[in-house]
Every structure is written in C-alpha cells, then in structure tokens.
C-alpha cells in the first residue's frame, strides 16, 4: 500500500491565516469534533456559529494549541498546531469563553502579566498596556482589582490582554455571551476596529446577528460538523425572507391557526414550526411580511384569538431549523 497523501492538505492553501482539515476530537463517548474543515483568509473574519455543545470551544482550543486533535491537521499563521506550538502561540491572541483574568490583580496588572508571558520588553509592555486600557475604556478602572469590574469590563479587559502581543490571528470564543445589549454593542465596535486594522479573526457565537454584523463568512457548526458555510445573506436565503410568529390564546386551536397562516401565505411559506405546548406557530415566508395583515384578518374571521404576533428576520434558530430540520438545542452529554 502506498499513499500520495491528502489531495488538499493544510500546506496547499495559500494566503490562509487558519486552515483546518478533518479535525476530530473525542471526549469519552462524545464526539466533540467529527471532521471539521475550516479556511480563513488573512485579514478576514470567520464567524463559527452554533448552539451549546456544537464543538465551537473544542475547535478554538485545538487551533490555539490548548488541546491536541485526535485526527486531522491544522495550521494557524503558517504554524502547525501539533508540531509548532510555541511559534504558533507567539503569533495569536485568545480571549476564551470565560474571561481569563485574575480577580485579585488590577486591570493594568492583568495586561502587564500577559505582556510578560509574551516576553515583551518592559517599556513596550508599559506603553502597550497604556494604549490598550485607553482603547478599551478602562483607564478610570485600571488600578482597581478586577473583582470590582462588571461583566462587560472583564470582557473588555480580557480582549485587551489578548492583544498585547499584537497577534496576527485572534480567537474570540463567545466574546459577548452574557453581556447586556449596551456592552455587546460597545464590544462589537471595538472588534470592528480591530478587523479594520487587518487582524484575522475567528469568532465563535451562538447569535446569527453577531456573526452577521462582524463576520465576512460564517461556518455553521452542529454536533461537531460544519453543516453550512457562506455569508450571512447566503445562510439567511436558505431560510427565506421573514418569520411570522403567532401565539394563540386557545392552545387547542394552534394547528388550525398554523393551517390558516400557511394558507394565507400561499406559495410564500417555506417552513412551518408548531409548538403545541406554547400555542405558537412560526411560519417562514419568502419576500416581505405584508402577509401579516391578511393573517390577522383571517384568524379574526375564524374566531381564533391572538395572544401575540410578531415578525422577525430569521434567527440562528430558524437557520438551524432550515438546515437540520430540528431546533437548535444543546447536544452536551449526548453520545455521538
Ligand atoms: N473536557 C471535556 N470532557 C468531556 N466532554 C467535553 C469536554 N469538552 C467538551 N466536551 C463535550 O464536547 C461537546 C462540544 O463541547 P464544546 O465546549 O466544544 O461546545 P461549544 O460549541 O463550545 O458549546 P457552548 O456554546 O456551550 O460553549 C459537548 O458535548 C461537550 O459536553
Ligand atoms: Mg464553548
């Protein structure tokens, strides 16, 4: 037996800051990654989008050398994740899912510490720390212990610390999960600026909206596999135009309501989701949502009382449903 090697390995991709081929990782009976391929061209942003337990953090940990893959290969900034760990680490920044800051140190001391881990010269660390505190709006709090910081401040500090070494490639694992909307918007702004400066970014998120705002391309990951890849618009077009959601007062009439909505939408309805327990119907319609007026009239005529009515753009849940035929739900703990 002989082999010519993989047709397209990690070495054959020019200009990519991140390349992964066939990454697999198993934890006991859980297959966390089941053959993940990724490619992120230099200076672009990839949003790795998926529900709880999809394998996002596992992928990030392998790409940042915190975990070894069982199978497959990957390069980041040109360095192999298994054979060139030290060089790779010097070229990247990582802000993990849970802010990795020391509670007892001040913000300034935290950034300083990371600078020393990168073996940067003292005065460069001092200069860089000052810049980053300024940039992340932490000057006023710089000399307070981090245990007095809000969640948003911790995330900003963690992100700041990940930038001390001026990384070519940055990994942000769910940078805004758990933040209020104001802090989320602030962080988006900061991330946008970074990207405008040419940093390559791999960002994981559970929110389509976040991937939409920040990413050039999105890879949707589910149960350890990339199930779709494209721009936000491409993914949404899988789903259709708008989602019309109706909740009825009398839950026993939810199927009737669903049938009525689909009939009113006629050919425009692309998928219907019924939640009997909640008395909710979500119908995805192509084009705009003008159909909603007719839906209200029709339900009224049939004496089906509405508890709630809304129209929204497809969310991650809708994209998920369209791609997989099931709602996004945690797979944590499930055997593969
Ligand atoms: N150290 C571990 N030991 C056992 N199972 C693990 C370990 N790390 C991850 N897993 C499992 O692997 C799967 C993928 O986990 P991972 O943390 O990569 O998901 P995720 O997409 O980051 O989810 P979340 O959005 O909740 O952070 C899950 O089923 C998880 O329970
Ligand atoms: Mg995670």
Describe the protein's architecture and organization.
This protein is α/β, with parallel strands linked by helices. It folds into 2 domains: 10-236, P-loop containing nucleotide triphosphate hydrolases (Rossmann fold, 3-Layer(aba) Sandwich), CATH 3.40.50.300; 241-313, 2-Layer Sandwich (Alpha-Beta Plaits). Helix content is 34%, strand content 27%. The protein has helices at residues 56-63, 85-91, 107-117, 122-135, 151-162, 181-196, 208-214, 232-239, 254-265, 291-301, 316-324; strands at 16-27, 30-41, 45-49, 71-76, 79-80, 92-95, 169-173, 200-205, 217-222, 225-230, 242-248, 269-275, 280-285, 306-312. The strands form 3 sheets. A 6-stranded mixed sheet has the order 6-7-8-3-9-10, sandwiched between helices. Strand 4 and strand 5 form a beta hairpin. Helix 3 crosses helix 4 and helix 9 (254-265) packs across helix 10 (291-301). The chain is elongated and about 75 Å long. The chain starts with 15 loop residues before the first strand and ends in a 12-residue tail after the last helix. Bound molecules: adenosine-5'-triphosphate (ATP) and magnesium ion. Adenosine-5'-triphosphate is lined by residues 27, 30, 32, 50, 52-58, 97, 206, 331-333.
Which structural traits does this protein have?
single chain, 336 residues, alpha/beta, Rossmann fold, Alpha-Beta Plaits, 6-stranded mixed beta sheet, 4-stranded antiparallel beta sheet, 11 helices, 14 strands, 34% helix, 27% strand, elongated, disordered N terminus, binds adenosine-5'-triphosphate, binds magnesium ion
């Amino acid at each position: 037996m002989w082999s010519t090697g993989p047709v397209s390995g990690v070495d054959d991709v020019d200009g990519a800051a991140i390349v992964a081929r066939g990454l697999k990782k198993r934890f006991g009976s859980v297959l966390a990654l089941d053959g993940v391929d990724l490619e992120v061209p230099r200076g672009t942003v990839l949003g790795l989008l998926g529900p709880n337990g999809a394998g996002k953090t596992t992928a990030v940990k392998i790409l940042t050398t915190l975990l070894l893959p069982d199978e497959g290969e990957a390069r980041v900034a040109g360095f192999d994740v298994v054979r060139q760990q030290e060089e790779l680490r010097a070229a990247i920044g990582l802000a993990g899912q849970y802010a990795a800051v020391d509670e007892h140190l001040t913000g300034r001391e935290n950034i300083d510490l990371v600078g020393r881990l990168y073996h940067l010269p003292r005065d460069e660390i001092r200069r860089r720390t000052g810049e980053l505190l300024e940039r992340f709006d932490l000057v006023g709090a710089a000399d307070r212990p981090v245990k007095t910081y809000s969640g948003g401040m911790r995330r900003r500090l963690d992100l700041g610390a990940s930038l001390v070494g001026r990384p070519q490639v940055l990994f942000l694992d769910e940078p805004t999960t758990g933040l209020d909307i104001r802090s989320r918007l602030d962080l988006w702004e900061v991330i946008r600026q970074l990207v405008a400066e040419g940093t390559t970014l791999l960002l994981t998120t559970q929110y389509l909206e976040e991937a939409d705002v920040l990413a050039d391309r999105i890879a949707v990951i589910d149960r350890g596999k990339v199930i779709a890849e494209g721009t936000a618009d491409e993914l949404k077009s899988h789903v259709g135009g708008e989602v019309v959601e109706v909740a009825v007062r009398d839950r026993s009439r939810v199927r009737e309501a669903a049938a009525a909505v689909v009939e009113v939408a006629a050919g425009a309805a692309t998928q219907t989701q019924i939640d009997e327990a909640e008395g909710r119907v979500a119908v995805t319609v192509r084009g705009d949502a003008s159909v909603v007026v007719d839906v209200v009239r029709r339900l009224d005529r049939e004496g089906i009382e509405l508890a709630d009515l809304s129209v929204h753009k497809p969310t991650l849940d809708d994209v998920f449903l369209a791609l997989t035929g099931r709602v996004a739900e945690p797979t944590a703990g499930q055997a593969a």
